[in-house]
Amino acid sequence: MKQLLIIVEDDKSLNQGLCKALAGENRQVISCQNIQSAREQLALGGAALVLLDINLPDGNGLNFLQELKAASPNLPIIMLTANDTDMDIVEGLEKGADDYITKPFSLSVLRARVNARLRQTADSANDQIHENGKFRFDFDHMHFTVNGIAVELSKTEQKLLRLFVENQGNTLSRSFLVDRIWTDGAEYVDENALSVTVKRLRDKLDAQDHIKTVYGIGYKWSIPNESEN
Fold this sequence. Notes:
By secondary structure, this protein is of the alpha/beta class. The protein has helices spanning 12-22, 35-42, 61-71, 86-94, 107-125, 155-166, 174-181, 191-205, and strands at residues 3-8, 27-32, 47-52, 55-56, 59-60, 77-81, 99-102, 129-132, 135-138, 143-146, 149-151, 172-173, 211-214, 218-221. It has a five-stranded parallel sheet, with helices on both faces. Helix 6 (155-166) crosses helix 8 (191-205). The chain is elongated. The chain starts with a strand and ends in an 8-residue tail after the last strand.
């Protein structure tokens, strides 16, 4: 599965340079030059990391940072900005940035810090056991319980559940989920297949309050009392 990076930088030449430097065989980089285009791209789901400028033509990157962290607290966000005072850096980190890099910067250092953040995220995602409230999901041994009672899930339902819990709080688009669940090479998947699988998973796990429908986009796995988008 390719890692998806979103770069939000209004300097076109710098943006293009970053895309070229950070792209790779297993990585896709999406270029956005303003907050609106980044918001639209992120709504599709599946982002692994966001590289975000502060001074953007249609808004302040710090405000957008807070918006993203409220909606997707586990999404890594690295600020990349000319705002380089100690106060600027402290403000960025306190508002939720996972890292803060000031311009001018070393491209090799930036690449290393992006890679380190992605490795850290991947290591967390590779934890095979997920426990939260009444749920305990052991993907290594394919053992799933709700309030201590075992629940049998099909392979398709297991794939869907894993995508949900590994992207907790993030909205995942229907197309993203279909592409990653039905990977057997089928050219066409019935649009209703995902809806049916989501309903079955909700019912089996009694997860109506956790598997949220984001109308017009897709679904997300929410923790109790999580604020809605």
